[in-house]
Amino acid sequence: MTTIDNGVNVQALLDAREVLKGAPEAAQFTWRASAKWENGVHSTTRIQNFFGLGQEHSHKSEAVFTADHPEVFAAEDNGITPIEYLLVGLASCLTAGVASVAQNRGIQLRSVESTVEGNHDIRGILGADSDVRNGFNDIKVTFTIDADASKEDIEALVAQSQKRSAVFDALTNPTSVTVEVA
């Protein structure tokens, strides 16, 4: 029998799932990001700590993200736009999900690539047309997957990844967002 290794410790995930079934309070996580305005529309966001499993945790290292707008928006293009970070999150989440599901189903992956495109009418954010929404009109995700599996099995991997994706869920279902001034 061939050992499948996509680099995902599925047993640890399955064990965690069983433990959390009996301790739902431990499954409550709070993810945090702190942004600081730099200049113009340029900002820097840092991520280090989060809460979960009943206590505070830190990532191995602080992650730093720079956001700006391109020169065509009369900005300095010091980083990707904030809305592009949504595409990064979606691509990363769905791709990780494919690897996890493949490992759990005994499918060896050779390569997984995803392309995510979001169509965006910017008249909304510019205030040029109040009937145009500020966010994406639609998003398309295309996977190219090379694996020891049939086309149907690969399609099922992607479908299960989509079903379990936190980012897909956050983008496709209403999420309560509260904005306050301290």
Question: Which key terms come to mind for this protein?
Answer:
182 residues; alpha+beta; two-stranded antiparallel sheet; 6 strands; globular
Structural account:
With 182 residues, the chain is α+β, with helices and mostly antiparallel strands. The protein is 33% helix and 29% strand. It has helices at residues 10-21, 82-104, 123-126, 151-164, 166-172; strands spanning 30-31, 34-39, 42-52, 55-67, 109-119, 138-147. Strands 1, 2, 3 and 4 form a four-stranded antiparallel beta sheet that branches. Helix 2 crosses helix 4 (151-164). The chain is globular, with a radius of gyration of 19 Å. 12% of the residues are buried.
Question: How do the strands and helices of this protein lay out in sequence?
Answer:
Layout: H1 10-21, E1 30-31, E2 34-39, E3 42-52, E4 55-67, H2 82-104, E5 109-119, H3 123-126, E6 138-147, H4 151-164, H5 166-172
Antiparallel strand pairs: 1-3, 2-3, 3-4, 5-6
Structural class: alpha+beta
Task: Give the overall silhouette.
Answer: globular
**How is the biggest beta sheet arranged?**
4 strands, antiparallel
How much helix, percentage-wise, in residues?
25-40%
Number of helices: 5
- Per DSSP E runs of 2 or more residues, the count of β-strands stands at 6
Order of SSEs: HEEEEHEHEHH
Report the sheet-strand fraction: 25-35%
Low-pLDDT stretches: none
N- to C-terminal distance: 59 Å
Average pLDDT reading:
94
Radius of gyration: 19 Å
